[in-house]
Queue: 2 jobs
Job 1
Amino acid sequence: MQSQPPQSASAPGPAPVVDVEQAEAALVEHYPRLVRLAYLVLPPSLGRNRRVLTAHALTQRSLPRGRKPGVAVAIPAQQGGGHRRDPGYAYVRLQVVRGALDAGLPLTWRSWPRRAQLPPLLPQVRGLRLFPRSGGADELALDQRLAKLSGAARAAYVLRGLEALDDAGVRMVLTAAGCDDPDDALAEADAVEARYALLASPEFDPCSLHARPTDLMRRRQHLKAAGVAALATLVCGALLGLPGDGWGPDGAAAPPYAQNPAAQAALDPGKLTVAATGAWRRSARTDFSVWPARGGLVDDKALLRRALAVWARPGETVQVSATPGTPSGAPPGPAQLLYAGEVDAARVVLLYDGLRIVRYAEPKEGTSGAALDFARVDGASGPEASALVVNRADGNVRYLTAPWVRSAAVRDLLKPAGQALALRRDADGVTEPFAGPAQSGRCTSWNALRMRDHSGAVRMVTDLGELTPARLTAGRPEAPREAAPADWTKSACSLASVRSHGVRSVNSWAYARQTLPETGAAAQWVCTRAETWRGAGSRSLAQFQTADGPTGAVAAKAEDSPACGPREPRVLAGVRWKSPGGNWYLLGAGSKDVTSLTASGGDQVQGNVLAVSTERTARARLTGTLADGTKVATLR
């Protein structure tokens, strides 16, 4: 809970004097609010991790220097009255706003950088990235709109919303903070819708944080013989970087393992294949083979050579990941170049060898910390070849979209009535970042990428932690259609159970509807089935969903079962349910080809739904019968 800005009922008068003790007391009491204020005013271009650390640093440096007599500070009035804030709080707030505005100034060669423009010395976090909890689509939209404002306009908006200052008070604070034209800042802030309640969201709380590792490489240090090792590294680096057979140009790759023509051809960036820009328009199919090479670094032969070398021989420091069932070996021959460019703080290369998508990423500065990711995509076409994850950072995701995608938007599956948030894409088809599905904690939102292609067809995919997003469909397994947000409103959170499982597509099938006993309310039975790229490992989940429940209750699940799939489009599941009156019932439902249901107690009904009274602790078994007499067991 945010502390409220302190107030006092003193009448206007001379500017009060603030001493160190007053400022320190205000800082300690209202530290979370001041840090939130700094975080909101800081430019989002810093990245969420640096914004968090800089916000804390600016707040901790806001006290008066030394123990000299206090300094005078003007205190603006709040909206709606003449109450004046505590002088100590007003002083430290002014210092925080001034530092946040300084941090947003561009660095130039003409003047020394100000302290706030440099990375903070304290606090320091090593080996972790910190960022606030992800909010919903409304918070993301507000953050994107604030990012487009100037620093002074952002400060004006936040002082209005978070601090409840009127325009005169905002003008006073901005003037004292060094803003040249507060009126222009106020006018620019007026262009953003006044949704001030969102400023108190966890999305903008830098005191309640998630932590993720910066990398997963081994972090051992060898202290013995450090001087000898450093000297040997310098000598070897100089020798191996010379022209010839050394591995200097190959970055983080291990030493060569073979010298044969096929292996050498696969490592030659000059032999990479490239599709023509309009090849997809003339091709009989739309798959990755007709993607043109895009990005600002497609002609950077040194980068491409490093990517190919690391693919063939990843060194010990390279972080390698592969979806289940995906081989991570060297390329069998010259691969196809899909993308090479700078994305956020990394240089990224995407390659395709007919079976796999390979992503190579390295920091903009140097090649230490390189990453290599593999994803199987054999047989992908149309919707399954419409997007690739090009980068993830701070819980956000960016996609590279196919050349036939005409527009992209974000849909929160848990809010089917909400509006789609349009995504900007650059000239290469890379989307702006947006919040991916939360990987831990409560499931309060689940964003999906909605794409419209050149024919007008709309597809939806979602990020499940891999290079290729999973396609979302709905309807009977033998003839699924493209999903709409309403098809996944109560089932979206169950997608977390198949994260990083090599998922190709997930289908949601509402196979039965049932009237609940006593209440007469409607409920439905839904089966979600995740198909994988490798074929094996499919997962089916039967859910019981009531109209008043936010999510479905898992009734049964199975792995590597043909049930609920195109080969066997039938399913049966049951669940014990407690009525509002306190009575327990065994509820069950099968797909429409189930003609009768039998409970273990002997109760039998004709049709594909069942509701019989039972005891809370009673064990019940449900069996279905098809029209030809075949028995069907529940999903397991």
Note: DSSP finds twelve helices and 31 strands in the chain.
Job 2
Amino acid sequence: MTSESFEILDLVGEAVFVRDFDGRIKAWNKASETLYGYSREAAVGQLADAILRTVYPISDADVEASCLATGHWEGQVKRKSAQGNQMLVHVRLSVQYDLTSKPIYIVETGREAKATNVEPELRLSEARYRNLFQAMAASFWELDFSDVNQRLRALRKSGVVDFRKYFTENPEEIREMMGAARVVDVNDQTVTLFGRGNKEELLGNLKPFWPDESTNAFAEAMLSGIARKPHYWTECKMRRIDGGIFDALFTIAYPPDLSGWTSMVAVIDITERNRAQEMLQRVQSDFAHAARVSMLGELTASIAHEVNQPLTAIAINGEAGLRWLARAEPEINEVRKLTKQIVADARRAADVIARIRSMAAHRAPERNLVSLDEVIREALLFIQHELQSHAATVVHEPSTDLPLVLADRTQLQQVIVNLTVNAMQAMVQSGASQRNITIRTRLADNGRLACVVEDSGPGINSDNFARLFDSFFTTKQHGMGMGLPICRSIVEAHGGYILAENVSPSGGARFSFVLPVPDREPCVRRGRA
């Protein structure tokens, strides 16, 4: 802009400034200096919406689209002066074109909106908000996302459409946006939780409070804002001023299009809650281990039978081999066959012992991708003799092409064994002549994996449904009442749920548990350049 242009604009009584379509100020008259408090030298070359903290009644992208479509836009916007005073400004935007009709500038005329009779109510509302902001027991932050919005606008203009993909390919951009988001104000609880008694050291950018391991959580928060969702929450790690890391429940409420200075964040320290949950999980793991050991005690006869069978076969084949070798002309081929059988029986005995050791081991749960039907087959091998000795028949009906589940193999085996043994014992206790158990797997309607265990017994008494999964509740004469509660805790710890119902009014019990299928595509690859 020429000096003559500035002189002409200075003759206008209203605030007038000119900006290009990147938002950068090209001209700034005297009335703009008076209204907004920025000198011409300080304003020219700056991004208008960044220094004025502009909040439009609609998104800034929609304002620009309206200007390009009609040549103008008019309305009231919220802004902040150089002194930090909030103001309501009535603006009119007009598009200027070059000789080829290409839009090159936006000329804005503005004046402070006159006070209305709602101002006292607005001031009262602001006072209430400030009182709540300070009085809340949670940590509250007031953030300015103006510079973040400018970065997003620039990325859109450069052709970025899929921000999830962009953030995945450019994870360093997330850290840059942390630096662009400014902390405007915090409450006293924030000073206590994050600081060292000095509020000022908390004001600035967000980078110091977000460890690298939580970059993905911040990326998801940004994506929610870009999608114009009203709010977002997650559990993540956050960092105090002294460098200490803690578990946090992070919640953010967004202004329109991330353009305002009043984006609100709440943070709650959930470290103690998570420790309590970890302690509960350890106690549940101890109970599950105790139940497995108790179950092994109940299956002692079956275990002895399982181990004795291959050992007996080894002894018989060994004696036969010795007789073949004792002949005047030893039958080497026969001895070779018997030796192969001995090796196979030894491996069979080792497999039985390995299953027993796995079930009895007291270790932390270890989750891996496993096949649910394979887990069922392994569990049934473990109790095969026990089922046969009680004349119970089990039919396993696996589904084809089921996805894998992220689970602890031993814990899932425990669930299958508990449900199957419970079904067998219920049928034996009732004197049922037909003792049939069917185990089915299928893909549930919600995309999860389901396992159903049905029996041909008397079914579940309607009076017992409410207490069926309560600890120490049992309908068996010598039962502990821990099997079903442990099944529920294991399934719920894996993100699933378990249900009980009767097959029909005439009898038969059905237990179903459902497990989630893991997400194979993480949103943002944390820490990759």
Note: The chain has 18 helices and 18 strands.
